[in-house]
Amino acid sequence: MHVAPSFLDRHAAREASALAQALRSGTLPRRQARLVRMALRYYVAEWDIIPDLVPGIGMLDDWLVLWALARAFRLSGTGAAPVDVDGIRREVIDALRGDSEQRAAE
Asked: How do the domains of the chain map onto residue ranges?
């Protein structure tokens, strides 16, 4: 049975997508890139301050971390288009992998 993503799931996914795109672009200063990586790792971790599996509020802490960082760097994921939450989680994991490989090559 597929459960539709909640309001928080969709908004966290939008912010994560914007941050992952910024990370993948390679244009972020080193300190900002490090903070983005930490926030994206927090987003994909199921067990954090409020476990993602808690119905209704599990994504609240993830969204707050992503939202605050995106606002600080002016990288907000906006728009009302449908959001593929699972696809964005995969995108974030791919961005983190690619960034790790790029840093290893340096």
From this structure: 7-105
